[in-house]
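Write out structure tokens for Spore protease YyaC.
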Amino acid sequence: MIDKLIIDPSSKKSIFILRDILSDELCPIVKSKRPIVLLCIGTDRSTGDSLGPLVGDKLKFLIRDRVYLYGNLQYPVHAKNLCDIVNEINSKYKNPFIIAIDACLGSLQNVGKIIVDAKPLCPGSAMNKDLPKIGDLSITGIVNISGAMEFMVLQNTRLFTVMQLAETISKGIYHSILKTIGGRKVNSILENSNENIEA
């Protein structure tokens, strides 16, 4: 189990650091054959809160054995549907290992950084929303400063900051899945190529 770790996306090694941390966590999960669920939380209606859906959008193609993805720009997971989605995940998959990804507000020196922690995250806490804690492992991107007027702070967050976080998080997750599970199944590649030929 990892301790809380802060990663700076501006570092050239950030993607590799995230990849290796996640790979270490996922190896025993993959061996135990537990399904892995990537739960990307947020909404594209607010710049600061769009981190989760952006990560989900970048990982839409990440279809692997026992790896499942919830939340992207087209179908976001947010305050209004989170409880239903969590119930669906728990009923659909046996003992899933959930990696929860969300934006958060933090201290000035940590804005633009990624926090990886082996504990659930509390979605909507910046907006004082009473939502269930979720995730066996959490990845949060600090998009802006916490304090007063959180709603306005999220609305006035720089898109550059959110995009940089989304890029690093999605690449780190992608490479950790490749490292622990590998590429797509040969069968699915053949099926896709056959579909292309038929089309």
